[in-house]
């Protein structure tokens, strides 16, 4: 892991694309301008970081810009790790896709799109990968509820349906098999 | 105390034999048969009201009643016994519970002892679906389609906490199995030990043996909930 | 009538002209070969979980392959955000359901890095023992199900026999066979009981002989060799571009293994080799994993021989539960216990990406904390998710039967792919 002076040197080589560098728990992170991510990764590849291990997203709710994408790079020759971060706002979550340079980003960018809504321009096939195709919403965002379903068992199905039709009672609140939250789920 | 015993004469014929030979029933035989039927029905939990109660039937009607029930019950029992000892599970594993399902079929706890080791790949050939693992919303319609393709009589075991009752993950991505298909036995555990799965299968076996009704609709009083009613 | 989704429309308008041009016109007028798109899964007898593959075939040759996943997506990462750091461990363990200790290790390692908590030496060695036992167990299921796919049905039962021994050991040390929540932040939850070491040594004596048996059965079997030798090779450079790590990469010749390259949890103390293949075909992938079983046995032997005395979990009471006997006498212990169980420890804000070598490749856990007692983001970088992208390149141009063997050798675990 490049230490702080090493990180600073790298950031200088990246020019104005690098916004800041962080050295935390012996790992280096460079935050970059989202518009220049492809060039940044190509430059870093030139410096030896030739393996893209992971592309994943994070939601910095409630700080803006909210959606972050992280790229984990490994230099296999010198045994080194580096993280590249970028942040995009929810209103305009567009990032250029790096799939053409790094084929491993294919499924991973689709997952970031699916879970966070970050649109990767230039991706060969950007559609949902984990959720059903027609799902609405981006589940991993912090303001998306955890969800959950009330559980009924086959032998109680009739009773449960009748109880629901009868409307919410004083104590049971229409959930004879209580305990599980409804679809809007508690979000502590 | 003196116990009175009454011995029938040697060569006495049973009620059925007397009927077959055209003889009328002996005075005590009707009442005994009716009492037996009443007791049998009480134990099974059937409730017949009004004119259907065997106490009100006499003579020929009673004959027919007994003929229908006794003979068919024995046949049903035999068929149920055969079915219960020859489940063909569908080879269907979703997640972690599938690993314990493998172990239930493995050498230590061998479901082949009971005859259930023939995991069929095709749902058309299987009659037991063991939902081993968590059911996500993407997978639910597919499982439903598999279940629909299975031929009656069919049973379902929901193995593990996730498909029975959402399990560890009560969130947006999962569906409890009971929501989209009827389940006969729920096996708790996360994952349930292979012994627990065996216990669940044995329970199902007992259920099938004891209840000659093959269809789950009769068992769960759900006649009339078909999507495509037969008499429509 | 349900609305036709965009995906459906796109699927019907897929332009196959570039692939069509590879299709030769079989002689004569009106003779025309077509490409067949076969839907393979998600329910199919090749028991790798609910993986769906859309395979485009020209005859028996695979021209294109698109995996469709998400059928066992459980929202683990979202659920983990809702729970305290300690209570999220059982949830995260259930991700890659064959290598549960590895999931827990990746997560717990990330949290320990954020907290700057030291794991005592005994705890590290116990972790290594359990991790390597889990590696053997995972490879056994891989071997069993792959052999099942190839047709060698009895190997499956042999592997399950060994796995029962390993699960017995897990049950003895932690109480559960799978998903044991044995790893905790700061160490392991309990010390090994009396008799565990003896049982482990018995197993270690038996395992190499059993692995020899499997090797003997499969390596001299003509059908297995024909199906695995020379089928679906892929060179290391393409694999690196696709982000593939683990036995698949090592089979292609690149000896990258995080246990040697970036040692964690005192792996540096042990002497073991990394099996590396040459050609990168299915047989190499098979041989590498089989050889790894022997290496794991060696590591466990060294670890149990050198098991140091001392605490098995960190003594920092703000992170790890105090031992129960202290609760009767010490007020601070009671307060710590209460705080840890109700709210949990707070982790200073930051983020960390902790990578370990799981049986399938680089398994990493990214944890972002915002200072509260619940993680703000937990992401598992699962090796099978990334390795699955290589399946298309491996199978293109090969027979569909070879594709089945390749899927088996890829060792995908859908729990990890879909999380």
The total count of strands of chain B amounts to 4
Largest β sheet strand count, sense and barrel closure of chain C: 3 strands, antiparallel
Termini separation of chain C comes to: 32 Å
| Secondary-structure element string of chain C | HHEEEHHHHHEEHHHHHHHHEEEHHHH
* Portion in beta strands of chain C: 5-15%
Strand order of the largest sheet of chain C: 1-2-3
- Please, how many helices of chain C? 19
Key words describing this protein structure:
heterotrimer; A: 188 residues; alpha/beta; 5-stranded mixed beta sheet; two-stranded parallel sheet; 4 helices; 22% helix; 24% strand; disordered C terminus; C: 419 residues; mainly alpha; 3-stranded antiparallel beta sheet
Write up what this structure looks like.
- The complex is a heterotrimer of chains A (188), B (232) and C (419).
- Chain A has 188 residues and is an alpha/beta fold.
- Helices cover 22% and strands 24% of the residues of chain A.
- The C terminus of chain A is likely disordered.
- A 4-stranded parallel beta sheet of chain B has the order 1-2-3-4.
- Chain B is built from 8 helices and 4 strands, in the order H-H-H-E-H-E-H-E-H-E-H-H.
- Chain C is 49% helix and 11% strand.
Q: What's this entry about, in short?
A:
The complex is a heterotrimer of chains A (188), B (232) and C (419). Chain B has 232 residues and is α/β, with parallel strands linked by helices.
Show the helix and strand layout.
The complex is a heterotrimer of chains A (188), B (232) and C (419).
Chain A: H1 4-14, E1 18-24, E2 27-32, H2 37-46, E3 51-59, E4 67-75, E5 80-88, E6 94-96, H3 105-116, E7 119-121, H4 157-165
Parallel strand pairs in A: 2-5, 6-7
Antiparallel strand pairs in A: 1-2, 3-4, 4-5
Chain B: H1 15-20, H2 27-44, H3 59-84, E1 89-90, H4 96-104, E2 128-132, H5 140-149, E3 155-159, H6 161-165, E4 185-187, H7 194-210, H8 216-219
Parallel strand pairs in B: 1-2, 2-3, 3-4
Helix pairs in contact in B: 3-7, 4-7
Chain C: H1 6-12, H2 17-20, E1 36-40, E2 52-58, E3 61-68, H3 76-81, H4 88-93, H5 100-115, H6 121-150, H7 153-174, E4 183-184, E5 187-188, H8 196-219, H9 222-228, H10 236-241, H11 247-251, H12 258-261, H13 282-305, H14 324-327, H15 331-342, E6 350-358, E7 361-369, E8 377-381, H16 383-387, H17 389-395, H18 400-410, H19 414-418
Antiparallel strand pairs in C: 1-2, 2-3, 4-5, 6-7, 7-8
Helix pairs in contact in C: 5-6, 6-7, 6-13, 6-18, 7-8, 8-13
